[in-house]
Amino acid sequence: MSEKTEKGQNGAVEAPIKLKVITHEKVIFERNVDAVYSQGVNGRFGVLKDHIPFVTALDVGVTKVMNGNNPTYVTTMGGIFQFKDNEATILTDTAELGDDIDLVRAQAAKERAEERIRSKAEEMQIVRAQIALSKAMARISAAEKKY
Asked: Going along the chain, which residue ranges are E strands?
């Protein structure tokens, strides 16, 4: 057996990190995984088995979850990432699995946000449009399986 996997109680091979992605409404993702890569407010980061305890604020972006050679992409719209004792938790206001995102709708949201930015509206409307653009771009990246 590789160092990367461990046997669970029933003897089945399990990935070493327990990951949960939680919003106010529900658990979006809950699985054992090999690695987690995400976008913190200070840049991208990744954690593997036995990483030191770690807490950081998340930026709007894409979280890439690896299970063997199979990536899963999840949008995270800010929030908190915590890692301790090979358990990772993401608490976020909004999250979506990349496979569940309507790409056409996300691209339309991106175009609307870009148009609002170009319109030279009030500063507050520009800030809101920039936030909307970041969210749309994260959704597009997750849907297109890009990190």
From this structure: 6-7, 13-14, 17-22, 27-33, 35-40, 43-48, 54-67, 70-84, 87-91, 95-97
Per residue in 82-115, pLDDT (tens digit) is 999 999 999 999 999 999 999 999 999 999 999 9
Spatial separation of the C-alpha atoms in residues 51 and 54, rounded to whole Å: 8
Cα 80 to Cα 116: distance, rounded to the nearest angstrom: 29
Main-chain phi, psi angles of 91, to 5 degrees: -105, 120
Q: How far apart are CA 147 and CA 145, in angstroms?
A: 7
pLDDT band at 124 (very low <50, low <70, confident <90, very high): confident
Q: Within 10 Å of residue 34's Cβ, how many Cβ atoms?
A: 18
Q: How far apart are CA 53 and CA 50, in angstroms?
A: 9
Q: What type of residue is 56?
A: T
